[in-house]
Amino acid sequence: MRVLTWNVQWKLPTSSAGQELLKRIKAEQPQVLCLTETYDDFLPAGHQIDSQADYGYPLTPGKRKVILWSRNPWELVDQIGSEQLPPGRFVSGTTETPIGSVRFIGVCIPWRAAHVSNGRRDKQPWEDHLAYLSGLADILARIDDDVPTVVLGDFNQRIPRRWSPPEVYEKLINAFGGRFHFASQGLKFGSHSAIEHIAFTEDLQASDVRPLSNITDDGSELSDHFGVVATVSKASGR
């Protein structure tokens, strides 16, 4: 199955940048995709689940930090995950795919300055990020092995580590408990390393992992993030 994730930086679906992003997304023909920092009407018809609207900043109609889209209906939908998570940045569900039923967890982990110099201005650098990782660790420790799982979205860290403090990176890796592989590990577009990631449990494998360009023909940016797409299949012998 083709799986895609992209932070589209709040581009409206009616804008020229939004239309070009949609064109590039559709060209990949994903079975399942995760968009972060988007609008609830950005994607065409399909089956969509969204994070909660309130993510701690002033509310704007339609804005969602995370959406998951599938060609097939969703079951076991969860917008909370853990009470430890900062709100509005999580959604999960199970959907049928070409390789069977798969659990998807869509995330938008806060960047290092969330609510530091904007928003509520009541946090220290990395505080919200670390709180999210504590919640994510709790969620991933509780998931059953009966259904393959993919975690995808905006991790706001590079894998392997580049700029984040060692203890922050260690907490990210430890949140996955050694049960996940990172398809996007080391992925680059130009000189930029991925902070959008696709991670999966050991009963899955990934191939054809590629960056999706965020640059137009005239050199302007469609988003400040490039996208990531991968083919995910059952691991050999599973």
UniProtKB/TrEMBL annotation:
It comes from the Bacteria. InterPro entries: Endo/exonu/phosph_ase_sf (IPR036691), Endo/exonuclease/phosphatase (IPR005135). Residues 4-163 form the Endonuclease/exonuclease/phosphatase domain. Pfam families: Exo_endo_phos. The keyword Zinc-finger does not apply. Gene3D superfamilies: Endonuclease/exonuclease/phosphatase. SUPFAM superfamilies: DNase I-like. One of its GO terms (molecular function) is exonuclease activity. Keywords: Endonuclease, Exonuclease, Hydrolase, Nuclease. This is Endonuclease/exonuclease/phosphatase family metal-dependent hydrolase.
